[in-house]
Amino acid sequence: MLPIKRIMAAVDLSEYSEATLAYATYLKDRLQTGLFVVNIINERDVEAVSMVAQFASNISVEKYISEQKAYRMEFIKQILKKVGCAEEGVDISIAVGTPFSKILEFINEKNIDLVIVGAKGRSNIATIFLGSTSERIAKRSPIPVLVVREKIAFKEV
């Protein structure tokens, strides 16, 4: 077994995020590794805001991204605290892009050894043709992927 020195938890702030971060925290503590938590603001949402901003002077893409980053950072910190994750050794990043491709970029940039994602999939026609983000990551990741199917944090026995 290769040494796992750096774990990445990719969360979308869905109902799977708490369990994803609970597993990441558990493995971080047991393996004594660093933890990189990432959340991606979907570029499709940014493009939609950009289109609306053309017709509304009180809306800007920069403000939207700034507010989203602040909200998401606080949300992630609250979940980490709830699952008992110490801040030491944890790096959180909020980025803009296509979620699965940005996550794959981070895997390489941050020298990640294991990625943990929630199993949440979109429940629309796009999923049928494209697959969920977690499915795309699992298919294309150069490293092991742990897909969390639980919606609530597990309890250690």
Outline of this structure?
The protein is of the alpha/beta class and 157 residues long.
* Architecture (CATH level 2) name: 3-Layer(aba) Sandwich
CATH homologous superfamily? HUPs
Give helix % range: 40-55%
Largest sheet: 5 strands, parallel
Total number of distinct structural domains:
1
Q: What do we call the CATH topology?
A: Rossmann fold
- Spell out the helices and strands N to C: EHEHHEHEHHE
Number of helices: 6
The chain-level mean pLDDT equals: 89
Structural class by sheet pairing and helices: alpha/beta
Low-confidence stretches: none
Q: Can you describe what's shown?
A:
The protein has 157 residues and is an alpha/beta fold. It has one domain (6-148): HUPs (Rossmann fold). Helix content is 46%, strand content 20%. A five-stranded parallel sheet has the order 3-2-1-4-5, sandwiched between helices. Strand 1, helix 1 (17-31) and strand 2 form a beta-alpha-beta unit. Helix 4 packs parallel to helix 6. The two termini are 25 Å apart.
Please outline the helices and strands:
Layout (H helix, E strand, L loop, with lengths): L5 E5 L6 H15 L2 E9 H11 L7 H22 L7 E8 L1 H11 L4 E5 L6 H6 L2 H8 L4 E4 L9
Parallel strand pairs: 1-2, 1-4, 2-3, 4-5
Helix pairs in contact: 4-6
